[in-house]
Specification:
Blueprint lengths: L1 E6 L4 E8 L3 E9 L1 H5 L6 H23 L8 E7 L3 H18 L3 E5 H12 L7 E6 L4 E8 L2 E7 L5 H11 L7 H8 L24 H17 L5 H27 L3 E5 L6 H14 L2 E3 L11 H12 L16 H13 L1
Parallel strand pairs: 1-4, 4-5, 6-9, 9-10
Antiparallel strand pairs: 1-2, 2-3, 6-7, 7-8
Helix pairs in contact: 2-3, 4-10, 5-7, 6-8, 8-9
Length: about 350
């Protein structure tokens, strides 16, 4: 079964053709990073306009690379939530038009579910249930993946996501957007123990995260040094900050996995490309006697192959959309799981 997938939730216009949820026949991504670098972050209006300009060409290239026509495609999948609303609307509108023009069924896919499904591509043997740490620019979640289409949120960020804190600290240190990879590179040349940052305490959420205080501590450290005319070593700050983020993520994931008894640990999302975090998660899995699954680096960031992978399982579960499908800026994985359970009972 071949699915043509479309992803436009932020600043990448992407299309892919995926077969049976695991085999990627094509995966095309048109990035806007160079343009958004000028502003130090994603400008939603610019992102939406670039999606409009790119989406036809990206879809055509994905079909060409996969060597398929619409007669070879069985279904369409599109990211409809969560994300930048204007950006999402471009992909959703285009996918609805394709569905109407071709008669192909349309499958709405949750962006975070897509990130989780990226691991199905990298690891053909991976099957639910498992525990997944999802870490990206806008999300930091611990998710119990009960089946291919059923999720339970175990922990989530209370404020800044891990990726967001990486970008803000990177900006303070003078690194370009997107800052995560520059923090990672700088950290390799720095001391992980040069600075000690405290871990947040959350009294009413055992597995929840908070990165706002850590981000603020680093920003204040840098600004205070600048005001006093004291030199700072960016590499040491980057290494100490990255270690603290990895430790916080690792502590919560370890506690959740141990409590729930999971021996399959999955990591997903753009921040899962960070070398320090990947190493920490390996250590956590080893401590638990668990197997660790990490996505291939090219599937960590936003892409359409992961949407095609999840779209396959959503299609098998009977999820469909019609012309009334709308984009949603926010939507919890818990919410889509509840809807699936209600459908099964009915």
């Amino acid at each position: 079964m071949k699915i043509l997938a479309i992803e436009s939730s932020c600043d990448e216009t992407a299309a892919a053709v995926v077969e049976n949820g695991r085999t990627v026949l094509s995966n095309i991504v048109a990035s806007q990073i160079e343009e958004h670098k000028l502003y130090g972050g994603v400008v939603p209006e610019i992102a939406s306009r670039r999606h409009v300009e790119s989406i036809c060409g990206v879809v055509s290239e994905a079909m060409k690379e996969a060597d398929v026509g619409f007669s070879d495609i069985d279904a369409l999948a599109v990211t409809y939530a969560p994300g930048l609303i204007g950006a999402l609307l471009v992909g959703v509108s285009y996918a609805k038009g394709l569905s109407m023009a071709t008669g192909l069924p349309l499958v709405p896919v949750h962006h975070i579910a897509g990130h989780i499904a990226a691991n199905y591509i990298t690891h053909p043997d991976l099957e639910p249930p498992f525990l997944c740490l999802v870490i990206s620019g806008g999300n930091s979640h611990i998710v119990e993946v009960k089946s291919y289409t059923e999720y339970r949120m175990i922990g989530r960020t209370r404020d800044d996501a891990a990726g967001e804190s990486f970008d803000k600290v990177a900006r303070t240190l003078g690194f370009p957007y997107p800052g995560g990879k520059y923090i990672d590179e700088a950290a390799k040349a720095g001391s992980r123990t040069a600075y000690k940052f405290t871990h947040p305490k959350i009294s009413d959420g055992e597995y929840d995260f908070s990165f706002s205080g850590l981000k603020t501590a680093v920003i204040n450290l840098v600004h205070n040094a600048e005001q006093r005319g004291e030199p700072i070593k960016k590499e040491d700050i980057a290494a100490s900050f990255q270690k603290t983020v990895a430790d916080i993520l690792g502590e919560k994931l370890y506690a959740a996995a141990k409590s729930l008894g999971y021996k399959k640990i999955v990591v997903a999302g753009g921040v899962s490309a960070n070398s320090g975090i990947r190493a920490k998660m390996k250590s956590v899995a080893d401590s638990l006697g668990a197997r660790l699954y990490l996505p291939e680096l090219k599937y960590c960031g936003d892409n359409a192959a992961m949407i095609g992978a999840q779209g396959y399982y959503d299609y098998l579960a009977g999820r469909r959309a019609d012309g009334s499908l709308n984009a949603l800026a926010t939507l919890s994985l818990d919410d889509i799981s509840i809807k699936e359970n209600e459908d099964e009972r009915n």
